[in-house]
Design brief:
Radius of gyration: 12 Å
Structural class: mainly alpha
Number of helices: 3
Distance between the termini: 26 Å
Shape: globular
């Protein structure tokens, strides 16, 4: 996917993560590689959002448990 499309999907997830965890925001560089065609209703956007949240959580020392991430 195009960089601007990735950013537009990831930005709200990033903002919500830092708001909910009350962690000091830190910078991240995102890269996406998958086999899911974008725009076909197969979950590419959802996969990206879950991946971003899980990655941020790992980088921040796992302040959220699995259930918190899914909410």
């Amino acid at each position: 996917a195009e960089a601007s499309a990735i950013a537009s999907l990831a930005e709200p997830v990033i903002r919500l993560f830092f708001r909910r965890t009350r962690q000091k925001p830190f910078g991240v560089l995102l890269a996406q590689r998958n086999e899911i065609p974008v725009g076909r209703g197969l979950g590419a956007s959802a996969s990206l959002c879950v991946g971003v949240a899980a990655g941020l959580n790992a980088l921040a020392g796992s302040p959220m448990d699995r259930q918190q991430l899914l909410n």
